[in-house]
Amino acid sequence: MSPRTGASYASAGVDIDAGDRAVELMKEWVRKTARPEVVGGLGGFAGLFDASALKGYARPLLASATDGVGTKVDIARALGVHHTIGHDLVAMVMDDIVVCGAEPLFMTDYLCVGKVHPERVAAIVKGIAEGCVLAGCALIGGETAEHPGLLGADEFDLAGAGTGVVEADRLLGADRIRTGDAVIAMASSGLHANGYSLVRHVLLDRAGLRLDQHIAELGRTLGEELLEPTRIYAAACLALTRATEVHAFAHITGGGLAGNLARVVPDGLHATVDRATWTPGPVFGLVGTAGPVERRELERTLNMGVGMIAVVPPESVTTALATLADRGVDAWVGGEIVERGDRTTGAELVGDYAGG
Questions:
Q1: Beta carbons within 8 Å of 203's beta carbon, 6+ residues apart
Q2: Where is the PurM-like C-terminal domain positioned along the sequence (predicted)?
């Protein structure tokens, strides 16, 4: 019986050297996200953030959120495009944090791969770092885990967690909303990072479309449309709170516009949003007709062209729209807050979309 060679982590499928190489490649991008409060650099067991920076707050509240990008990662994997998916991660985490009026401070990421390809890992982290710069937060740490046998060599998953801070007396939410407040809708950049299980099922499995297929109504390939990065609203939302009075924000993710807006509407009031105030982008119509998918199902799964909502008093509308325009965010008055007449609460879309 011939002797067996000794087992090693490498023979089990984990390449420590490749992991070290990936860390070296990503350091440049992580450094670009540094804020003055960050202590130390990448490579420690924990990321450090100087909390003495919060001394200027009378009563600082820390806001925390965690999220991932769902099955959108499968589109990135299939196309071999890895430098944009990190934008989606930052948006999903930091745009949740800014909803309460909190300033994003820092985030960490978790990348799980079947096999470490250093350049691929660095490209993903580059996207996260670029997103952090847009959101104004630091990327202070993370983890890249190699899971051979659990994931294929080209498969990966991505998640992250973030922290922000808001002064207690400036906390936004349902308790500030009043009858007559305006509902301002901010345009999405496309599908963002929700509903991709439905989108993939409808467009790829049922309709048989290819990711490299040019779609006339989209003006580009299907893959390019599906990988369009999620818009990061954090900086624009904070600018809005500095420019005028804001009562609440709602990040439009899983559950759709009505479902997420309802989360910030107080008892006894109701939010109505008029579909006639905008036209959803062509990708939403493509999903609807290719399914076919009923409008109600589309609206509770996809953002339908609205990625963030701001609820402001009527006298703040002009300043709010001008501020968002200055930040490059298309926005419009989409609805209002009305009396419900009972203790139930909620939000609804009314009418038909403009242009059909």
A1: 209, 222, 286, 287, 290
A2: 179-342
Structure-block tokens of residue 345: 């609460």
SS3 112: strand
Q: How far apart are alpha carbons 82 and 84 in whole angstroms? A: 6
Q: Exposed, middle or buried by CB within 10 Å (0-12, 13-18, 19+), for 266?
A: middle
Instruction: Give alpha helix (H) positions in the chain.
Output: 16-31, 72-79, 85-97, 118-135, 196-199, 222-226, 234-243, 256-261, 282-290, 295-301, 317-326
What does DSSP say about strands 269-274 and 346-350: parallel, antiparallel, or unpaired?
parallel
The overall pTM is greater than 0.85: yes
Nearest-angstrom CA–CA distance, 49 and 144: 21
pLDDT in tens, 97-149: 999 999 999 999 999 999 988 889 889 999 999 999 999 999 998 888 989 88
Let me know: does 132 contact 139? Beta carbons within 8 Å.
Answer: yes
